[in-house]
Amino acid sequence: MQAEPVLVLGLIEACRAVITANTDHLCALDCAIGDGDHGSNMRRGCEAVSAQGAALSNLPLPDAVEKIGMTLVMNVGGAAGPLYGTLLMEIGRELRARDGTEEFPIVLKKAIDAVARRGRSHAGDKTLLDVLYPVQDALAQSSTLIDVARRAELSANLTAAMKAMRGRASYLGDRSIGHVDPGASSCALLTTAICHYFGENHRG
Amino acid sequence: MTTGNAANVGIVIVSHSPLVARGIADMVRQMVGDCVPLAWSGGNVRGELGTDAGGILRAIEAAWSDAGVAVFVDLGGAETNSEMAIEMLGAPRSALVAICNAPLVEGAVIAAAEASGGASLAKVVATAEELSP
User: Fold this and answer.
1) Quick one: residue B36, left, alpha or beta (phi over 0 = left, psi -120 to 50 = alpha)?
2) Measured between alpha carbons, how far is B28 from B52 in angstroms, rounded to an integer?
3) Across the strands, what pairs with B13?
4) CATH number for the domain including A189?
C-alpha cells in the first residue's frame, strides 16, 4: 500500500478540525451521561496526532495508522483513548499483514471486532460501536461517501433511544435513555469529516 | 517508588484522581510497610481527572516483581487503560499482571497484606476478589 503523505496530513487535519469545532458539543453530551470531558479528551488526542503530522506522513500508511492509534492511547485518556487507539492500531496491523490485498471493509470489520473485545461491548450497548458497525456495513455495500456519512450521523442519533450498558453512562441505567452517546457522536463526526475529505480530494 | 521485597507480588493503584491514587498508596504503605513493591497512577496526562495508559505502564514497571503485579482500578476507563498498559508491557511480563475485580481501597489493602506474606499472584488476586459481591 502506497504511503500518501498529503492524504495522511489532510485526514489528520480534517479530523482535528471537526473535533475542535465540536469540542464543547461533545463535552455537553458527556456531561449528560458521563464525566463531561469527552470533547476535551478527543481534542487533546487530535492535537497530539497533528503535532506529529510531518513525521507520520513520511511513514508507510499501515505504520502511520498504527502510530496514530498509539498516540491516541497515550494522550486521550478516558476509555475513548484505548477504544479509538485499538481501532487504528488494528487497522494498521491488518493493512500491513494483508499488504493491501484485502478490501478495506474486511480490514475495518476485524478492527471493530477488536474494539468490541477491548470494551467488552456489543452493538446496541450505546457506544461508538453503534456507529462503527453501520459504517462498516455501508462500506461493505459500496455505498457512496455521502451515504456512509449519513448512515454514521443517523446511527449516532439512534443511540439516544438506547440504554447504556457500558462505561460511566451505564451507572445511570434508564436515565441514560434520551441522550446521544458522546462516543457515538464523535465517531459520526470523524466519519463524516473523513468522507467529506475523500469526496473533495479523491473522488465522490 | 519501588521499594519493598521484590520476591513479593507488587501492587498498583489506578484511579481517575491523582489524589485518590496517591492517598490509597499511602494508606497501603502505612499498613503493610515496605515489604511490597507499590506504585500508583492517577489522572490523565495533564494530571486532570482521567487515566493514562502510559502512566499506568510506568507504575507497573515501578512496582514490578517477578512474582507478578496486581492492579486495582476505579471506574471503566481505568480498567480499559490498564489493559492497554499491560499489553504495552509485552510478553512474557504481561502474563504476570492481573487486574483485580475488587473495591479499590479494601482490595488494595487486603491484597497488599496477602502479598506481604509472600503469597502467589493467584492467591493475592483471589483474596482481593472475595471482597466483590
Assistant:
1) beta
2) 22
3) B40, B72
4) 1.25.40.340
Cα of B31 to nearest chain A Cα, Å: 30
Our count of domains for chain A comes to 1
Three-class HEC string of A22-74: CHHHHHHHHHHHCCCCHHHHHHHHHHHHHHCHHHHHCCCHHHHHHHHHHHHHH
Say how many CA atoms lie within 13 Å of B32 toward its Cβ. Answer: 26
Each domain of chain B, given as residue ranges in start order, spans 10-123
Q: What cell was used for A49?
A: 496526532
Kindly report, residue by residue over B98-108, the tens digit of the pLDDT: 999 999 999 99
Q: Which domain holds residue A73?
A: 5-202
> Which of A119, A115, A128, A66 has the alpha carbon at shortest distance from A91?
A66
Contact list, B52 vs chain A (CB under 8 Å): 74, 77
Task: Specify whether B2 is catalytic.
Answer: no
Q: Spell out a b/e string for B39-69, using b for 16 or more CB atoms within 10 Å of the CB, else e.
A: bbbbbbbeeebbbbbbbbbebbbbbbbebbb
Tens of pLDDT along B24-66? 999 999 999 999 999 999 998 888 888 999 999 999 999 999 9
- Per the CB < 8 A criterion, the answer to whether B117 and B35 are in contact is no
Distance from CA of A46 to the nearest CA of B (A): 14
> How many helices (H) and strands (E) are present in chain B, helices listed first?
5, 4
Domain B10-123 bears CATH identifier 3.40.50.510: yes
